[in-house]
Design a protein that fits this description.
Blueprint lengths: L5 H11 L4 H19 L1 H11 L6 H7 L1 H16 L8 H17 L1 H10 L1 H13 L1
Helix pairs in contact: 1-2, 5-8, 6-8, 7-8
């Protein structure tokens, strides 16, 4: 049986499994966020730049990739505002958001930019860095 979309998969699983609707919706949300973080080429490019500590240049990031960087930050700001991490267990949230959180906390200039432009995200990143 070929399924055309995650939505069809969700309906199929609701009909033929023991999982609750809430469990399936949570799984679908998890998959969509995971897909966004792993498939979106702009997001992957930003993460590669943030991960390269030896050659990281904040000015270059803001000059050449500002639109992609802001899109990346807006994605996480939206997730924070919607309180999406609260819908997952601590382990699931760490799996999805641990790496991006680590990368965004790694560079002083990035944290300063986030603090000035993305206050909700800044608050969560500050809390996450204190927990570790």
């Amino acid at each position: 049986m070929a399924l055309a979309s995650p939505f069809r998969l969700l309906i199929y699983m609701l009909e033929y499994s023991e999982l609750t609707q809430a469990d399936l919706l949570k799984a679908l949300l998890f998959l969509q966020i995971y897909e966004m973080l792993t498939v979106n080429e702009n997001f992957r490019k930003i993460e590669r730049r943030l991960d390269d500590s030896e050659t990281f240049n904040f000015y270059e990031l803001i000059t050449h990739d500002k639109e992609s960087f802001d899109e990346y930050l807006k994605f996480f700001e939206t997730i924070v505002v919607m309180k999406i991490p609260n819908r997952f267990s601590k382990e699931e949230a760490e799996l999805l958001f641990g790496r991006p959180s680590e990368l965004l906390n790694r560079h002083y200039e990035v944290r300063k930019y986030i603090a000035n432009n993305y206050r909700n995200l800044d608050t969560v990143l500050a809390l996450n860095s204190k927990e570790k």
